[in-house]
Specification:
The protein is an alpha/beta fold and 405 residues long. It folds into 2 domains: 209 residues, Rossmann fold (3-Layer(aba) Sandwich), CATH 3.40.50; 175 residues, Glycogen Phosphorylase B (Rossmann fold). Helices cover 41% and strands 16% of the residues. It has a 7-stranded parallel sheet. The protein starts with 6 loop residues before the first strand and ends in a 6-residue tail after the last helix.
Length: 405
């Protein structure tokens, strides 16, 4: 069954490395084959602009409209300012053009705007059409803070969430954090999807071919660290923990792919020189077409991120290939690994326990390995890209739609 032809405005105020994946998933969602999408987004670099232009040229049902270019964003106040500017532009677009649905990606940063007492007066067209949004953070709905300051911020976040839900501007909200979605659903009557789709494809995971690409043997145990490599990723801690793992048969291989932060590069290079295992380092941006080989070649993805409670595309891509996982405690990644049973949860600063977790995964029996790989794939299927748009359906639309939202 297909939904009637529709015009959907997708607003992505802060373009990021996974954005094109979300756009492509919207186009490929079951039942939305005839939907036309207008994407309003931003870019920072020429490389991002080129990638976006190639995507638009290959997709006749999508129209890309760029926001004013902004500098790299790293602080919450910068995010809020960008969202405020974007919402004002969207308001002008809605006053002049007709759309059937309005979807905000990374809707977390528009919540404070909707919590303001005069939001309905400032953004009447947003309220008239109703906003559907995807939230990546837990927005204070999961107790993860360890300091007094952060505990205070969590209280503020929960207050903002309650105010924004009460505003009446949302017709559907989707959380990648199921626990946060459950708590939000208990706050007010705004329709909440307990688990949003962080979309993933299911590539042909030809492990033998992928390993040959990187010069790896079938006996190697490959730990993959992927993405923008900075201190937040916990790579230093992971390497130090791996150095504590016995490696008499030289099975351990660390595959690191992604741009390394300049400040971190000298320290990493010095560590590699003292490692008794092989390190394959690809210090560069990984193209979309090359990405599947990295995850197909890996035995285990290492997501030992510090101070991180959100979802991870690295974990999800690994799961789609049946990879095991080591993830840091607290948040969405821990929930996924524990529920579907495909890895180990570690405290990043506890090197001894971290090393023990890595060692356990290296020495699983074939039966245990197969069971955990199957759990990883089950987790990935809950985020099948073809289900992406179903998380934004209203209750009335979902009742007429054959795919479970």
């Amino acid at each position: 069954m297909k939904l009637p032809p529709r015009k959907v405005l997708v607003v992505d105020p802060i373009y990021h490395v996974h954005s094109v994946v979300h756009y492509r998933s919207a186009l490929g969602s079951v039942g939305f084959e005839s939907t036309e999408f207008t994407v309003l987004t931003s870019v920072v670099s020429a490389q991002e602009a080129e990638r976006l232009e190639k995507f638009q040229q290959s997709q006749p049902r999508v129209r890309i409209r760029l926001l004013k270019q902004h500098p790299p964003i790293s602080r919450r106040l910068q995010c809020l300012h960008q969202f405020w500017q974007t919402m004002r532009q969207v308001e002008r677009i809605l006053a002049q053009e007709q759309f059937d649905a309005l979807i905000y990606l990374m809707a977390d940063h528009m919540l404070p705007v909707f919590a303001l007492p005069f939001a309905r007066l400032w953004f009447p067209h947003h309220f008239a059409l109703g906003v559907r949004g995807l939230l990546f953070r837990h927005n204070g709905l999961r107790k993860t803070a360890t300091t007094a300051r952060r505990k205070c911020l969590e209280l503020v976040d929960r207050w903002i969430m309650r105010r924004s839900l009460r505003s009446g501007g949302f017709t559907r909200l989707s959380f990648l954090d199921r626990e946060a979605g459950r708590r939000a659903g208990a706050l007010e009557e705004t329709p909440i999807c307990g688990e949003g789709v962080d979309p993933v494809d299911f590539p042909d995971c030809d492990r033998a071919h992928a390993r040959s690409v990187f010069g790896l043997s079938s006996d190697d145990f490959v730990f993959l660290m992927f993405g923008s490599i900075d201190d937040r990723k916990g790579v230093i801690e992971a390497i130090e923990s791996l150095r504590a793992v016995e490696n008499p048969d030289n099975r351990i291989v660390v595959l690191i792919a992604g741009r390394i932060a300049p400040a971190l590069r000298p320290r990493l290079q010095a560590m590699f020189e003292s490692c008794d295992f092989r390190v394959v380092l690809h210090d560069r941006f990984v193209l979309d077409e090359d990405l599947p080989n990295y995850f197909a070649a890996a035995d285990c993805v290492v997501c030992s991120y510090k101070d991180f409670t959100a979802s991870s595309g690295v974990l999800l891509h690994g799961a789609s290939c049946g990879d095991l996982a080591v993830v840091s405690a607290q948040g969405v990644m821990e929930d996924a690994v524990r529920e579907f049973g495909f890895g180990e949860v570690v405290e990043v600063e506890d090197r001894a326990a971290f090393a023990s977790a890595l060692r356990r995964l290296m020495h699983l029996s074939p039966t245990e390995r197969d069971r955990m790989s199957a759990g990883a794939r089950r987790y990935a299927r809950t985020h099948d890209f073809r289900l992406y748009m179903t998380q934004f359906l209203t209750l009335e639309e979902a009742a007429q739609f054959p795919v479970k939202a």
